[in-house]
Amino acid sequence: xxxxAVRFVLGERDIPTHWVNLMADIPDDPLPPxxxxxxxxxxxxxxxxxxxxxxxxxxxxxxxxxxxxEAVREAYKLWRPTPLHRAHRLERALGTPAHIYYxxxxxxxxxxxxxxxxxxxxxxxxxxxxxxxxxxxxAGQWGSALAFACSLFDLECEVWMVGxxxxxxxxxxxxxxxxxxxxxxxxxxxxxxGRAQRAHTTGSLGIAISEAVEVxxxxxxxxxxxxxxxxxxxxHQTVIGQxxxxxMEMAGEEPDVVVACVGGGSNFGGLTFPFLRRVLRGxxxxxxxxxxPAACPTLTRGVYAYDFGDTVGLTPLMxxxxxxxxxxxxxxHAGGLRYHGDSxxxxxxxxxxxxxxxxxxxxxxxxAAVLFARSEGVIPAPxxxxxxxxxxxxxxxxxxxxxxxxxxxxxxxxxxxxxSAYDAFLAGKLEDPEFSEEDLERALxxxxxxxxxx
Amino acid sequence: xxxxAVRFVLGERDIPTHWVNLMADIPDDPLPPxxxxxxxxxxxxxxxxxxxxxxxxxxxxxxxxxxxxEAVREAYKLWRPTPLHRAHRLERALGTPAHIYYxxxxxxxxxxxxxxxxxxxxxxxxxxxxxxxxxxxxAGQWGSALAFACSLFDLECEVWMVGxxxxxxxxxxxxxxxxxxxxxxxxxxxxxxGRAQRAHTTGSLGIAISEAVEVxxxxxxxxxxxxxxxxxxxxHQTVIGQxxxxxMEMAGEEPDVVVACVGGGSNFGGLTFPFLRRVLRGxxxxxxxxxxPAACPTLTRGVYAYDFGDTVGLTPLMxxxxxxxxxxxxxxHAGGLRYHGDSxxxxxxxxxxxxxxxxxxxxxxxxAAVLFARSEGVIPAPxxxxxxxxxxxxxxxxxxxxxxxxxxxxxxxxxxxxxSAYDAFLAGKLEDPEFSEEDLERALxxxxxxxxxx
Lengths: 454, 454
Description:
Structural class of chain A: alpha/beta
Distance between the termini of chain A: 54 Å
Shape of chain A: globular
Oligomer: homodimer
Strand content of chain A: 15-25%
Largest interface: A-B, 48 and 48 residues
Number of helices of chain A: 17
């Protein structure tokens, strides 16, 4: 084994000073969100009850770059810049001539990329005089990131955790509480939405959102915080891709293909947007692959339409690929990818043919994750296991074609809280649920009466 | 908040090329281990049935430095060098003029410092033609580090996990299995030692050691691997302190005091030995604090005597502070610190007055850990929480004295698999077991009939 570069590390002075706002590079005007009552374009004023103006401005900004506040860069220093790895051992295990790189975000205190936006949102809310943030969480990745961020900016944090997860995943709850957050089992009896849904004892993400939004809307010193989908959330995540661009330069390589998993789109957008900007500006030719679960195949099987962001139908309508806002994805372990829609920005890029979506079954993603763990060490979360599956397929193709393909992917989190899923996989007890034609028909029937998209 | 350095990072070329062997600097000849049958000094030959010669040579070497094999440095690149942090936020929370630094080892795939020696041991065994390593594990930190290391060097790995942990901590077990290890519940029915102890259904570390050693001793292509206590294990860990020395130079500061927790001593030795060498050579004046649990106060309350390393009494006798080899520490959550003895090297330094031991109760360590998590982000494992408690006390003293004391400590692992302990602490349900005079009397009575130490 000869000396060779494995990890490309940056110093804290290399933390980006600006976020990349891809909105400025999109050729067409973006489709506006619609007010759920009037079906007219929703404006910034519709969002002020639950978001601070600084984040609303980021949400609608057309500026190509937005400066990162110094206090946010200071908070980033706790774990950023994150390393870029060359996966020599995985390449050897695959016998591929491809060069595989991964950007690892699992070293953050909360264990995923989520704190990149959580600290930005906590900072802007604290700066606006807000005292408390509310949010929902499913398996707990987002809730723990926001709890951590609130602890840094002396904000209270109140999390509604989906009842079934609250009961089954006590450790993510303990993590939030260790950072000082209050965690409610949803449906709770402290909100109208929760009391109305008491029959629904296991809860759902839709109900949890309604509870968190209700409390934020009713209290002037309380705001709501969302962990994906919205433009400003993806914006904050672009620190990932900007660092990766520099690190690929250090490695002296240009990626042929960039791969990331997509749930709401914040991990995908965070890694790819800085690379996509170069493509949109004609400076590079790069392929982009969005990996999603076959059990919740929004980008590969959904319809492109205006739909609600939440199950209950309280949010503005967004233009996106959707499986229908009332679709309840089967309980695959990649909880962060179980979302009926996706970020409108990412959906637009898929629609424009700039991003290629691929769907994978649960077992083939765990098969890839175990091979990765046994060669590279890190045990991946089930979400990035989808990206690893796509990477291995690309690497196999490269071997068959005899091509030195350069592949970069986002390893957005570790699987320390997902080991029961590995247990089930290794025991051969993991299911492979798939989306059906019936599911699609139901989705189409449930779409709200909004203008059609082409 | 002004720009200021938070994280000091090194590149992979800065991974040390040699391990620091403090044995070369100890003024007196080291006391030899004794053969348990003859009570005569045990030599290298007594160890060949279960260890490869390369590790035995490291165990007894008087060379001041030992070169790190290139394949081990290659494996280190997966997570090394690890970052050194300045704990600005913790300092602010404490209102102290002290400067607090921590070296964070939790970013390794297994989540602690343990892989530093696991990869070195796996490499030397693979190089010697060994096919399988056996070991014991309590809560699973060491077992998972060795499982990870074996996956890198294509070795089989067989772990005997203490029965009660096997039942209560399925996730550490899943982690080992994900890396390809076979995990047995101890006592198992596949060893004589296990079958003889079947009545002991919850198991113990002592029984698990006996099972792992038995299998290694009986099979020529199988060796045994230990995660702490022995000289060569502490040697491998000195990459931590060497990196920290360079990083403190980058920070432009000289530590007044270096703090680490002690279980078997490998984390403590790994961080402090490179700093201790400077003191022993007259190049620096540094204080060293060894933090241990009041429930298992080996260094603060134990007797300095020859004692067995294991409960059953199969290992050579080692000169160390001991609470008696048959002492079963109360079930505090810092499982890695529940050991009746300590590394002979570390014990000798305590005996010589170069290292100051301090014991802490469980609740005060969790109190410190939660303050740390809420200021610095990372949720510490219960073991380094003992070091954090000592650091906070030092920082409080510095505030009272109006001193800019520079404190460095080892944050040897994260607490992702210890959140039930945080849960209990936050609920006020954590106990504070303490060592009693009765315990000490029993310990003295159980000491083997070996030469007395002064």
